[in-house]
Amino acid sequence: MSATTAAQHHDRPGQIMAGEMAEQPEVLRRILEEGAPRIREVAEAIAARQPRFVLLTARGTSDNAALYTKYLLEVRLGLPCGLTSMSTTTAYGAKPDLRDVLVITVSQSGGSPDLVASTRAAREAGAITLAVTNNADSPLAEVSEYHIDVLAGEEKALPATKTYTAELLALYLFVEGLDGGDGAAAKVLPDLARQILDRQEEVRTLAGRYRFAERMVLTSRGYGYPTAKEAALKLMETSYIPALSYSGADLLHGPLAMVDNVSPVIAIVTDGRGGEALQPVLERLRGRGADLVVIGTQAEVDKASAGFALPTDGVVEEVQPILEILPLQMLAYEVTIARGQDPDAPRALAKVTETH
To answer: Is 303 in the active site?
Structure first.
């Protein structure tokens, strides 16, 4: 980085993350227009091989995209899915029988050694291997039988934003392809994403609630649960606020005890069955006097202390997570700026995390 660039960056903390968040509508449009035919090809080739089980392999933000895919595959296709414990092969040398198993490895960079080693081991064990990355020339793409490029363009800010929503959309289109669908439900996303991102002032006001927060709880159910996990990760890595994410069902099994009338809770209320399943949790939170903020429909926001109403009319539940995360990315950014930190460069983090 030149001295001039460094000075500019210092003058405007968070400008890289802000720029990449703003790119998301265009990235979503690019996937729908340029990426979809290739994704369908890959889906059709894999569907013809009739996998009996799916294993999803990922770390960090991509792990949340993998969890979203688990919901899609289990709900849409009835395919049992698991999240891989990579150390079983990379550290313990286990040799599972993966014949007829589809192993999907999701990684923005495609460069983490454990992801590459785990995928190589899966292929040697007979798996059908698919890499989903933002780098077609990555080691992970090279060792996988199939590859989907999420076409997000280079991401420079340490907190992943555009690559996450790109992964979600690419994986949605892949599952659509496996199921013989045409992905039409996703066509509304670029325009709706732009509408949401234009509401920065609204999010900045919301961020004022969390400037001095010592911890936060995020909760959801169904397709919204990966959003809660990803939002918690964004808040922790940018603002350093301990943010705990729970499925609404798990929250009732004990952690609810830590929620009191000063506890900030963000609930992601998907418009659909996930939101319906979350209702008993919302009632309990309101009963405890929690400082409840809702990301969801206008009706749900109206019942909470505050919130952000999403444009979900006519948007199928399966693709709502691509919209839900946007105000939460902006919230992480705004809270971090309000606390006097730089969201572009969280301490102790590297863009490519080399776990083994």
So the answer is: no
- Exposure of 152 by Cβ count < 10 A (0-12 exposed, 13-18 middle, 19+ buried)? buried
Q: For residue 203, what is the domain's CATH number?
A: 3.40.50.10490
Residue with tokens 């069902």: 249
User: Using CA of residue 67, residue 323, residue 244, residue 292, what is the dihedral sign?
Assistant: negative
Size (the chain), residues: 356
- Fill in the amino acid letter for 80: P
Pairwise CA distance, residues 86 & 172, whole Å: 24
Is the pLDDT assigned to residue 80 strictly greater than 50? yes
Q: How far is it, in rounded angstroms, from Cα 272 to Cα 249?
A: 16
Instruction: Supply the pTM of this predicted model.
Output: 0.93
Locate tokens 């590459």: which residue? 116
In whole angstroms, give the CA distance from residue 222 to residue 260. 25
Q: Catalytic pick from 95, 156, 187, 351? A: 351
The answer to whether residue 66 sits within a structural domain is yes
**What does the alpha-carbon distance between residue 37 and residue 15 come to, in Å, rounded to a whole number?**
33
What integer pLDDT is reported at residue 355 of this predicted model? 58
- 353 domain-assigned: no
Q: In what order do the strands lie in the sheet with 264-269?
A: 243-247, 216-220, 264-269, 291-296, 306-309
